[in-house]
Amino acid sequence: MSNETEFMNALAGAGGPLCDDCLAPAAGWNQRQQANQVGRRLEARGVIARPKTTCVMCHKIKTVSAVGDSPSLPSEPPPVAAQTRSVAGTAVAEPPAGAQPWHWEGNVQAAIAAHLASTGWRLTQVVDTASKAQGVDVIAQRNGLELWVTVKGYPKGTERTNPSTQSRHWFSHAMFDVVRYRTKRPDVAIGVGLPDGFTTYLNLAPTVAWLHASAPFVFYWASEDGEVRED
Predict the structure, then answer these.
(1) Residue 16: beta bridge partners?
(2) Strand 84-85 vs strand 122-127: parallel, antiparallel, or unpaired?
(3) How far is CA 174 from CA 30, 168, 208, in A?
(4) CB 186 within 8 A of CB 139
(5) Is residue 207 part of a domain?
(6) What's CA 204's distance to the chain center, in Å?
(7) What is the pLDDT of residues 62-118, one digit of tens each?
(8) Residue 221 domain flag
């Protein structure tokens, strides 16, 4: 039985919306992050919704997973080339749930893709970050406008480089992507996706105000619970 089927069975058995904390044990999982990742993946495909409302199990107001009166899991989407996930149905490739921290680039990308899909954008490309594929991380269209988003996670660090130092490099790479994208396509909207809550990124964002004004772009800040805020 797939993770998605276990997720949907747990949700159907609850008879109402479930938060990630309650859904994980209901599906037989030890980590809430597994429920969060699978839920965001299903939301990106349009199978479920993830509004902020009352969980039927813990009765707290949280981000929950919710389906209609007769939930059903659609058949798996056809395989997509490993290099680039070009998605009309907003399918987002991820490694096995629970294998990476929430601030890993692929998880940040999935949260942003789901956010865009829920706000009326049609996803046309989601690059497979797990295979380090080249290309714009997320491309979406809405009302005749095309959006290119470069996404960075927060690093684990290495023996030679601590996470704070490495994250500065990643932030500069994202800013260079903004410059490249604007030079290549003056007509597209541009976004920069980052995990929220990390001091380095939050402190660096105001320092590029001049670029923000010269080559307009939007920051998409993804939080651990999958919520995304735009700045």
Answers:
(1) none
(2) antiparallel
(3) 34, 10, 11
(4) no
(5) yes
(6) 21
(7) 888 987 543 333 333 333 333 444 444 444 444 444 468 999 998 999 899 989 998
(8) yes
